[in-house]
Specification:
This protein is of the alpha/beta class. Helix content is 34%, strand content 32%. GO terms for molecular function: protein histidine phosphatase activity.
């Protein structure tokens, strides 16, 4: 096998690994309850594949804190991340209720309708409301 064939084989292997890493990224990871900031993150593998995920943590003061935490995780998997926006989530597991609203001052407003669709993959039995009201 010549050097070009080895390089090509190696690149295919790396691409396959990043595709598998992307497939393993959960769509939703949010705090189990409370009101907290969230971000939508577009995660990309080394090729053309990508997916949008939702992250929100009560222990993060700023939207950027959430993004930076998750970006490090994705980098370790060989993935790239971008944040198109954020907002807030109210999570009441007792009532099986999620409310998505507001915006991020740093990243802008996420597409709350898309956020709702993504949240519904993890919380199919919840009532999920979206609103453009509030911060």
């Amino acid at each position: 096998m010549n050097r070009l064939q080895l390089l090509s084989k190696g690149l295919r292997l790396i691409h396959k690994m990043s595709e598998e890493a992307l497939a393993g990224v959960p769509l939703v990871h949010i705090s189990p309850e409370g009101i907290f900031k969230y971000v939508m993150i577009n995660v990309f593998d080394g090729g053309d594949a990508s997916k949008a995920v939702i992250r929100g943590f009560a222990d993060c003061t700023w939207h950027a804190d959430i993004f930076e935490r998750e970006e490090e995780v994705f980098k370790k998997l060989g993935l790239r991340a971008e944040c198109p926006g954020g907002g807030r989530i109210e999570h009441n597991p007792e009532k099986k209720y999620l409310k998505v609203y507001g915006y991020s001052q740093g990243f802008g407003k996420a597409d709350h309708a898309q956020t709702k669709r993504i949240l519904a993959t993890k919380y199919p039995d919840y009532t999920i409301e979206i609103s453009d009201e509030g911060y």
